[in-house]
Amino acid sequence: MVMQTRVLRAVEPAEIGSAAREATGLLRSGEVVALPTETVYGLACDALNADAAAKVFAAKERPSFDPLIVHVADASWIGTLSTVTGAAEALAVRLAGAFWPGPLTMVLPAKDLVPDLVRSGLPTVALRCSAHPVMAAVVRDIGRPLAAPSANRFGRISPVAAQDVIEELHGRIPLVLDGGPCRHGLESTIVAVEDGRLTLLRPGPVTTEELIRFAPVERAERGGAVSAPGMLESHYAPRTPLRLWPGHAPLPDDAAASGVLAFGAVGPGFAAVEVLPSDPAEAAPLFFAALRRLDASGVERIYAREIPESGLGMAIMDRLRRAAHG
């Protein structure tokens, strides 16, 4: 039997309060709810309830080896959910002070309190404190951490608006809180925090240039073992095949049957065109929505023009490479 999915508006303060109470009631009963964050919409459950987490995996068709991000109310939860100590703990606290609430996820050694399913059997837990008023209100009201991966079918384009969630998960979840479009439009930066250094597992809105003020940053090699969400080689992908297109390359032979995602400008010749600003910081909030439009346009292939990998350009190129993999 298909579930009835309701949508509640949660933009004005009074709406947020009422919607948060509705969501909290469902979450306490072991259900899942789609909520906006400042990055993308997440599919939330009680992070300490393994049965509820199983519903997240089922709704998304997510493999059990891909761990979930756990959203907390503030930095005090680091000591509740993690065994981190010493210099690594001090670094985690400094990062939380600088970037929480915000789009930074820290991977830390986990306590057994965090269910094995949420961690996908790993000895670590990924922690984040969202700055979005809706997610913050729900986490505060329920008084427990929420596990919340992106609210889409596994491997597909991340949702940046409530309508994206409906297209992906209608009939699979009971409630979507519509908090409007997401501000950043790219998933959070993920770092593994160790003594005196950081490993960048997934680039995002908090850039390497910002992180190196706190500790040396190494970038994890692509294709390694999955140690955090969003690390699979194929991810964030449209149903339409996508290829990277160097900016200096000539027009592809199949351009007349293809779409293009460009940054700045692009010449004629493609069947469908989405042009984003050349500044990655301006392009990022529009990126996934443009990719969804191209995917729905009926073209046979999507070409994505490459951009320099500095600042948010690194995060955009990371998503494009994973979308093009295979």
Radius of gyration: 19 Å
Strands, total number:
15
The CATH class label of the largest domain is Alpha Beta
Summed up, the domain count is 2
Helix content: 25-40%
Task: Please provide the ordered H/E string of secondary-structure elements.
Answer: EHEEHEHHEHEHEHEEEHEEEEHEH
Structural class comes to alpha/beta
Q: Do you know the CATH architecture of the largest domain?
A: Alpha-Beta Complex
Strand order across the largest sheet: 2-3-7-4-6-5-9-10-11
Low-confidence stretches: none
Shape: globular
| CATH topology (fold) name of the largest domain | DHBP synthase
Distance between the termini: 35 Å
Instruction: Provide a count of the helices.
Output: 10
CATH homologous superfamily designation of the largest domain: DHBP synthase
Q: How would a crystallographer describe the biggest sheet?
A: 9 strands, mixed
- Give the overall average pLDDT: 95
**DSSP strand (E) fraction?**
15-25%
Give your account of this protein's structure:
This protein is of the alpha/beta class and 326 residues long. It has two domains: 6-219, DHBP synthase (Alpha-Beta Complex); 242-324, Threonylcarbamoyl-AMP synthase, C-terminal domain (Rossmann fold). Helix content is 31%, strand content 21%. The chain has helices spanning 13-28, 50-60, 77-81, 86-99, 116-119, 133-142, 162-169, 208-211, 280-295, 313-324; strands spanning 6-9, 33-36, 41-46, 69-71, 104-109, 124-128, 146-147, 175-178, 189-194, 197-202, 217-219, 242-245, 258-263, 272-276, 301-305. The strands form three sheets. It has a nine-stranded mixed beta sheet with strand order 2-3-7-4-6-5-9-10-11, with helices on both faces. Strands 12-15-13-14 form a four-stranded parallel beta sheet, covered by helices on one side. Strand 9 and strand 10 form a beta hairpin. Helix 1 crosses helix 6 (133-142). The longest helix is centred in the first third of the chain and has 16 residues, at 13-28. The two termini are 35 Å apart. The model has no long low-confidence stretch (mean pLDDT 95).
